[in-house]
User: What shape does this take?
Amino acid sequence: MRVRDECGELFADAEFAGAFSGLGRSAWSPGRLAMVTALQHVENLTDRAAAERVRVDLAWKYCLGLELEDPGFNHTLLTDFRARLVAHGLEERALDLLLAGLRDKGLVKERGRQRTDSTHVVAAVRRLNRLELCAESVRAALEALAAAAPHWVEAVLAGEGWQRRYGRPFDESWRPPSSQAKRDQLAADVGCDAVELLQAAYHRDSPYWLRELPALQVLRQVVVQNYLITTDTKGRQVVKRREAEQHGLPPGRLRLTSPYDTDARTGGKHGMQWTGYKLHITETCDAPTEPAGKRPERPNLIVNVATTDASVADAAMTGPLHQQLRERGLLPGEHFQDSGYASAALVHHVHADFGVVLVTPLTAPTSRQARAGQGFDQAAFTIDWGARQARCPQGQASHIWSPTTRRGQPVIRVRFPTTACGPCPVREQCTTATRTGRQLNLQPRELHELAHTNRTAQQDKNWQANYATRAGIEGTIHQTVHITGARRTRYRGLDKTHLDHVYDAVALDLIRLDAWWNDKPLDRQRTTHLARCNLDLTT
Assistant: This one.
């Protein structure tokens, strides 16, 4: 009710007109369906429960502008509404409309302070090992073929082996063979079955449309990623399972993990592995101008969400996140991120391309000496950029200065002569090379000096106090997970998962606006019973 009073009609029907045809019977208001979806995420309701609340809850009717006797709608309309949004690229329309209205009210602004972090999202499918993935992909393809062309299956795939092996799902109740030899044999049999099924579906006598079934396409990709098809000395076809050490496997960003969600990938962070996606949340964090305990000038609101598969590194999203903020007209002046999003090159490019100052700690150098904390790392060398020369702590000068590239990035390779490093009394603290002298890989001058300046600033207490602002995003992630259940996606596929996250952001913004309008103080972190005890931690 507060949202309706303050914002009026947030989502107009015309904003979603592109997802609906001008022909046929009039649909239930898409603007109201958008608001129902947002309220559904506020209370973490199912479609059926949300439709029931529209029918019986007066507060929901008031927010939607419905008459008291309005019967509401069938809950299946929400499924159709989400599918239409995804099909027409309108996933972010609700968040765009909300932020546009809040910008007009002065509650969000450009060139403020923002913070971003990511969290893992578990897919709505079970995590499978390679044997289960291949076997379940064959079973899924057989199910699709049996539903689409049962007579073809009966005529072409005769025999009891298919039903015996793939008649039941390879779920938690399925137990693999006990011995490694039997598991290897089963993997080989599954590969032969998969190839046989694909060859039958792609045979010229088979209906051409069979090969267009999504399950067949998935099976084809699974076979390519997990098996090698060769011929023996007699010209017979041999199907072998790929081994990582001998044949190599596709990189994680390309490798399928389930036949039922082809967008989900396996990712890792802080020693944890999961199959699914990653959610990036950006919120405002302008410093409060009111005294402590008073309502701040404006609430902290989520201004952007991005969803990727789990294999995408945080640093790969630094540029795209700022591009999305630019398109919304909400680029920050200062952007607080953790070290996973940053490098010297990204700090430089974000400032040059977007005019944004990244407040983020740069990771420490990764050389052997820097990791060990002893010896002479790169910082111990003096670089003379004008003379294109480096000088070691013992006063020896380099003799090679060679600009090149490393992993697609420009670097400067600096080498010291063997005649200088060989007899050096501190050689063991500098290099382990026996045939050559010490070698340095320097970034271009601008990035090298930027990294040195940032790492020096990170040691300052004022910088650390300012960077502490970033910690608030952890509470936002906790709120997202606790209220909307964002830790596990409800849907299969990246597009629908991102749509779900967009409406999570809209829901959280509405919750925060309601608290701000009603002068409700922000919730503080809970304190454990043990922390309340006055224990002497020095003993």
Notes: DSSP finds 20 helices and 13 strands in the chain. The chain has a mean pLDDT of 90. The radius of gyration is 29 Å.
